[in-house]
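Changelog note: in this version the structure field was regenerated for every chain. One regenerated record is shown below for reference.
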Amino acid sequence: MNITEDAAAMQLLDPSTARRIRERSGLTQVRVAAELDVTPYTVQRWESGTSRPRGGMRLRYARLLASLNAAIPAE
């Protein structure tokens, strides 16, 4: 990804958007957590808005969401 793509991916970090993308991709919080090497509870907190990913994890999560979103067929 380039800087522009990373900036666009960061927009997907809104908790409700992130959850919608994950659910439409057919993935569980457990699977996303495993991909990012965090706990399922951490993903649950991100999706509920209780906490936010920080540092490098923020970019990794945004990139994962962007790739999942790109793979979802248009409605």
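Spot check on this record: The helical segments are 3-10, 15-24, 29-36, 40-48, 55-71. The chain has a mean pLDDT of 90.
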